Amino acid sequence: MTAPEPQPRRLPPVRTVCSYCGVGCGVVLDVAAGPDGRRTVRRTSGDKAHPANSGRLCAKGATGAELMAAPGRLTGALRRPRRGEAPEPVAMETAVAETARRLRAVAEAHGPDAVALYVSGQLTLEAQYLANKLAKGFLRTSWIESNSRLCMASAGSGYKLSLGADGPPGSYDDFAHADVFLVIGANMADCHPVLFLRMMERVRAGAKLIVVDPRRTATAAKADLFLQIRPGTDLALLNGLLHLLAAGGYTDPGFITEHTEGWAAMEGVLADHPPDTVAELTGLAEADLRRAAEWIGTAGAWLSCWTMGLNQSTHGTWNTNALINLHLATGAICRPGCGPFSLTGQANAMGGREMGYMGPGLPGQRSAEVAEDRAFTEELWGLAPGTIRSGSGGPGTVEMFRRMARGEIRAAWILCTNPVASVAHRRTVIEGLEAAEFVVTQDVFATTETQAYADVQLPAAMWAETEGVMVNSERNLTLMQQAVTPPGDAWPDWRIIAAVARAMGYEEAFTYDSAEEVFAELSRAYNPRTGYDLRGVSHRRLRRGPVQWPSAAPDGPDRNPVRYLNDGTATPPRVRADGSRPRLWFPTPTGRAVFHARPFLPAAELPDDSYPFLLNTGRLPHQWHTLTKTAKIARLDALDPGPFVEIHPRDAASLGVADGDAVEVASRRGRAVLPAKVDDRVRPGDCFAPFHWNDLFGEYLSVNAVTHDAVDPVSFQPGTKACAVALTKVATAAEAGRGAGPGAAHGARTVATAPAPRAEAAVGAARGGTADGRAVAPGPVGAVAAAPAPLAAAAAEVFHTGGIAPPALAEPERRYLAGFLAGMGAGAPGAPVLPDRTPLTPDHALWVNGWLAGAFSRTEPPEPEPAPGPEPEPEPEAASAAREVLVLWASQTGNAEEAAAEAARGLTARGRPARLLRMDDGTPAALPSDAVLLLVTSTFGDGDAPDNGARFWAALNAPDAPRLDGTPYSVLALGDSSYDDFCGHGRRLDDRLTALGAHRLVPRAQCDADDTDPARGWLTAVAEALDTEERADGATGTEPDGAGSTETAPGAEPAVSASEPALSGPGPRSGTAPAAPRTATRHAPATARLTGNRLLSGPGSGKEVRAFTLDTREAEVPVPYEAGDALGVLPRQRPEVVAEWLAATGTDPAAPVEVTGVGTVPLATALTDHLDPTRITTDLLRLVADRTGDPLLTRLLRPEAKAERATWAWGRQALDVLAAYPVRASAAEWAAVLPRLRPRLYSIASSPLTDPRLIRLTVSVVRFGGHRDRPRHGVASAHLADAGPGAPVRVFVQRSPHFRPPADPATPLVMVGPGTGVAPFLGFLQDRRARGHTGPNWLFFGERHRASGFHHRAELEALRDAGTLTRLDTAFSRDQPEKVYVQDRIREHGALLWSWLRDGAHFCVCGDASRMAGDVDRALRDVAVAHGGLDEDGAAAYVNRLAAERRYLRDVY
């Protein structure tokens, strides 16, 4: 009986506050403890006792439990050793010490203003307080800014100018008493939904709702009067309403006289804003203006609500002043149901403003510009008088990053915010962070757009993992109580700040043990002038429930809903000079609120001929800020899954844009490319885009790359709500997914779903065309008997062949096939089969033969039964069949695959059919128990298995690997003898098979790159050993004609025809000329002509990268290829190198030497065409050491000196050895120790579908100063670079069947090709375009510098603009202080990449194997962890599965 699984133990619920917007809803967390004692949040619900929400929660707030389980947490500190390198884990204490040391060093070297802090409205009150204390009190920097500068700065400055202090004068209680609501520049239904519901309760009770917005939002849909205003004209509207209120007699003269000043100065502004003028400016109907004024003027109580629509303006402060003017004029302030009420965007932005965390602010609504406030704060902080700098506070966030970019600010500490994504004209932020000497970030999640620029990353505890106070829009303090333990080394923000401060040397001022202790200190920042008072509040009191300030005493009321009452509650009663005691006292010098005459100003940027549209930006209901939280919550992400740009139908028609089309939104600063959402919610001439999506979700999604950063001169808040843009339809993969509509996936990538495979496709091909309409040579249609459509369709489904398209044939292939099909009618009966020697590539021939078999091969009708008669004599019992031979191969470049195929052909020619199987297509456990195993493998990297043999090798090494007792086997290992671990994987494979009990049939053979003799000898030995074993077993073997079983195992390739002698036939030295090959090969190359030689790299590159074009139309034999193949170039040694060798050795150039596989040739010919006089080999060193007796060379030849020998040989060539150690030997002796001149393989950068006779290459030419600065050259690359036009080049194609673009037209393709690794992907893209494939294509390209290393830029950008290349992400590592590589871009766009992989994308990598390939592989696994929710083992298994499915392909070298 199984014991029941222990159930989590429920713990008492934890009351806390929502972490999202400024409504500040109370939340109750259902917490449980697991068997290990670790607590988790199981469920989130609304707190019915909380005054902000009474139990209601929006969708974001209700997903608190999912947020706590979100992936991608930063659980430990990271430090980047130097810019451009990946961050490495360090102890938290180490990271804190490093941060403190570097911040202090910058301040001491360059002054305090060289250090900046950029903080957040999502920090707790305690953390905000400590950040400001450290910045202004101890670092003494002017630069502490916050993301509130982007949201509420204009509201704050407007409040101060009009009312004397920041913050709304009323509370949420007013929503239950208002008769009219004016909602302007706020979409409450989407952005403050719980407060919106409170408002709608009052509207349903009879209150009127006026909504002012340039876009018909969800809030506007509920309005009694919707004023769809022209963007940027709010100030004109507000002044116009005041004009109508005054003209209609709706003002309150008594209130104006008693409680305000400045009314007389309003006369001019009022006169300038009559209804007709305002109607013209705003685009509103004059009648609607009058109706709005009448409703406001006749209301007993009216409330205004606003947020970013008014604040994010270059005159946002004036907007706030003008709105408050309406309240002052009507006396609708500081009484129930009345007042201006700004809606804060972040959970504690209100508290941050009270803590003074931007500009000259000091805690308690004080200012460093006021001497009394500085003195109060210095006493609070224990500072000497004069420590706090007068007026310390810089001119805003935008200017801070500008000065950072100029080098004035050299260090930045960014806490809990993502400015790279959120700041307008974000390029300024990027330039600033790149220029800074030191950037430290403090965040909950490991990956944000800003984290990429961090030198140190400090892990912070998240909501519900720490304790602290949050203040909402109505001045309500709620204690955020800890429910669970932070993961890893994540610390509360306040603790990190205090630890850094102590490490900087400020121990005595930052010795806090708890957030409660910090709050106790900050609550002393009482301000009798503004009424700010937390002296009656403590963590202990807040554990019982929220408290609204002012709160002077611990036993005072929890709610204080109206400010500025002169009743002695918040401030001592004030009496005027005449002895009167007014009902209200505002914290201005006179105690009166102030009217400010604010004439209309247009937006900073207006449409013109070049940028004719006006862009408005905003938020969506189920996403928040820059998606660091909500995008990780599936429920929310599904509701608002992707970006878009809303365009009016009239504008869409003129642009030729439909729903889902990709539209470029371009301004004078940058561009975004977003799916169109055609909707009349926006005005003609306007467009709207949410700002949430940025680099992590795709390139060109950042709306803040487009917005401008002109700022309000008072608040320094940027005016992001009105920006002139141009809209242009662009061709991308979004076209294919039109039906999906906007936001189909992160990054707005919509992918057309491939239609179900149709049986008619094969039949259509027989009728002269393919299923997609491409022509093929006509065939004998009358002879075709197609399978019934349902049967063909069912078979396609069973065998998963529906996505394999007919091949696109090159011209020679088509010409041959046309003749073949034309001659079929005169041929013998039966199913036609292509002969072995044709110009068709093997893959194309395989498809054609399959089609021919399907069209012509039919079962013969049964013979009529014979007449009754005597039974025939039985045949003698057949002898037992020969043992099955299975040839398993693993190959990185195709050499081992070719060798395996030749081995199968050779055995078949000897009457012993063999099966071919890629190692990773099988497992050791699935190998036939009675088969003979022949394993052909190359070695990759440092002795590793090739990619397509790695899983087989891992399974063979697993503890549970099956025994192979008695199984006969042999290994053919291919390698490069210039590597120390020559044939290392083959050796290890051989040893492991022996360890598992397998019987070695013949010893392992090891082949160098161009020496096939060992392979021929190995195959002969294998065949003879098989014959011997079978004779010993009494088996008769197979007949010479090859009769016998030819069954093919699942996944195995059928054995090829034995008509080509290959390894089994006599070699070239036997005196018998081999049969002419059907195509160019390594041993029988074709001659191409060099017709193109173009320099790609620019000045200052440090590299010489060239594009070569080779013409094969005059070649002796065809040179067919496919996209993904490599071209082998057999170079000729430079004449000066040959001459230098001959001079150094004193040998006769005409002396005859024997070259294996060639015969006898003069030494000069051998050095030019067959041998390599530049490579240092151990044989060469041994000859020189024997002749000279040099102790250094003798030591280097010892087996244990491999590493030393490699170091010594670096930068040297064989010629340098001879210059240092001149020796004499015969020509034959030199020929015996020189390696063969090997062909160089270059990825082909073209597709035969473009022109099958032209082959393009992208090559980095090797030239360097060798030992003692002697000029040296790469033999093949320099041979091509220095050859003249039309020069002959010996070439052959190295097939790469493992590296192909997807056959399925709809499959997404991701390509990673830095440097010259981009070459094959040019061919992939050309191939997919020529075939009409609709699947999206994404390329990651990297080099050192954009200006000099963006190879094929024009072609790539043209492919992107044409829609073939959907995304192009670049990484130019040296263009910024912090090096950025393709693997960094992969991580940056991990979320989008993961969605592509989920959609079945193939992931292809080409380039350097030594570092890049491993780094990219690691990044791919990181993406699987961060965005797939996998652990490290799961990610490794996922990547292995991609490789097994042939979706992860590498061509690395």
TrEMBL record:
Residues 885-1023 form the Flavodoxin-like domain. Belongs to the prokaryotic molybdopterin-containing oxidoreductase family. NasA/NapA/NarB subfamily. The keyword NADP applies. This is Bifunctional nitrate reductase/sulfite reductase flavoprotein subunit alpha. It holds the Pfam family Flavodoxin_1. Residues 546-583, 856-880, 1027-1102 are annotated as: Disordered. InterPro entries: Asp_de-COase-like_dom_sf, CT_Nitrate-R-NapA-like, CysJ-like_FAD-binding, FAD-bd_FR_type, Flavdoxin-like, Flavodoxin/NO_synth, Flavoprot_Pyr_Nucl_cyt_Rdtase, Flavoprotein-like_sf. It comes from Streptomyces catenulae. Residues 11-72 form the 4Fe-4S Mo/W bis-MGD-type domain. Keywords: 4Fe-4S, FAD, Flavoprotein, FMN, Iron, Iron-sulfur, Metal-binding, Molybdenum, NADP, Nitrate assimilation, Oxidoreductase. Residues 1065-1089 have a biased composition (Low complexity). Residues 1083-1302 form the FAD-binding FR-type domain. CDD domains: MopB_CT_Nitrate-R-NapA-like (cd02791), MopB_Nitrate-R-NapA-like (cd02754), SiR (cd06199). Its cofactor is Mo-bis(molybdopterin guanine dinucleotide); FAD; FMN; [4Fe-4S] cluster.
